[in-house]
Amino acid sequence: FAAKQRPKYKSLQVLLPSIESMEKLHLDLPVPLNRLSAMFMPGAFSPIAVADDDCTLATVRTDPATGKVTQGVRIPNSAAALRVLRATGPLAATSANRSGDESAQTVDEAVQALGDAVDLYLDGGATPGHVASTVVAADPYGRDGIAILREGVIHEPVIRKALTLNGGALGV
């Protein structure tokens, strides 16, 4: 938070090596996020999972509207990142930039943005672009049963179309 100058009210996502690792963390993807995740993960899709009472992640937050304890998750589409996650387990993470600035695409851009405020930089190669992941939450009252909290690489029409594949909404 200090290095990024990120406001405390903004939560951190957790990077995971696989969807299956969510069970060990006591996280669940509600309908229709479970089906969307199967379609868009790994990649730039960040669903909001619901944490059960046994979840011990320090990064969870309570949704003031629903009272549910939630956690944003992401499975990166990077062989280097997945190797690290398989070795370390889940990692709390955010983009490598000052809060509100464009995300770093290379380690050099990350160093330029964050400098000595970060103790270790791992160069896994350039990312394909500066656009953030798409963050989606389940919303039983929302259009198609979801709320797109941040549109990123995966654009809203693509998400909405995926919800109607196979002749109907995905369990909504």
Keywords:
about 170 residues, alpha+beta, DHBP synthase, eight-stranded mixed beta sheet, 5 helices
Summed up, what is this model?
It is built from five helices and eight strands; from the N terminus they run E-H-E-H-E-E-E-H-E-H-E-E-H.
CATH topology: DHBP synthase
How much of the sequence lies in strands comes to 15-25%
Q: SSE string, helix = H, strand = E?
A: EHEHEEEHEHEEH
DSSP, total strands: 8
Can you tell me the CATH class?
Alpha Beta
Uncertain parts: 167-172
Cα distance, first to last residue?
A: 36 Å
Q: How much helix is in the residues?
A: 10-25%
Number of domains: 1
In terms of structural class, how would the helical and strand content be classed?
alpha+beta
Tally of helical runs: 5
The radius of gyration over CA amounts to 16 Å
CATH architecture: Alpha-Beta Complex
